[in-house]
Amino acid sequence: MALPMTVTSAGLLVFRVSADGVVEVLLAHPGGPFWARKDEGVWSVPKGEYGVVEEPIAAAYREFGEETGLAPPDGAPLFLGQRVQRGGKRVSVWALEGAPDVSAAHSNTFELEWPRGSGRVQAYPEVDRLEWMTLARARAKLLRGQVPFLDDLLAALVAAGRVTQAGDAGELAPEV
Q: 3-class DSSP state for residue 59?
């Protein structure tokens, strides 16, 4: 009997730091009828699955483009780690600094029979919204299993002297 394949996913956590030291991250809200009325705890790092022949970092860049319709920012990605999500999926995430304009964002689509059993198949965007969020807001919106990536980003920015952590909410202040 063959062992089940582990599902792997990779994504880019694009971030920006304002002049006053506030860090914002770019998150994606999943498209489709199941997610339409859900908000807290369902947003995600733009990411997607990849197979054994694709390098995870290449998949992260590809998926960012597919899910956002935007070119990833230039710069050196910082590997934030790999985490196993509640359903067993292994997610690898890289941080990348930049500030793409999300007003022209558009996602690829998938087809789904909805309502189930109705025989009506419709196309839905994989991502229906992209938003810049502070770390505090992102903690509430992001899938629980992806929240530790915010901590990893914060730790990297603090270690680099870019920001200092201020307060329990995870908001940041500039290095003084």
A: helix
Measure the CA–CA gap between 15 and 27, rounded to whole angstroms.
Answer: 9
Three-state SS at 18: coil
For the chain, which domains are there? 8-100+110-170 (3.90.79.10)
pTM of the prediction? Answer: 0.89
Q: What are phi and psi of 78, to 5 degrees?
A: -110, 120
* SS3 call for 141: helix
Distances in whole angstroms, Cα of residue 129 to Cα of each of 31, 107, 108: 8, 9, 12
d(CA 96, CA 116): 38
The distance between the two most distant Cα atoms of the chain, rounded to a whole number of Å, is 61
The torsion region of residue 41 among left (phi > 0), alpha (psi -120 to 50) and beta comes to left
Q: What is the pLDDT of residues 94-132, one digit of tens each?
A: 999 999 999 989 999 999 998 889 999 999 999 999 999
Residue entry with tokens 């909410």:
169
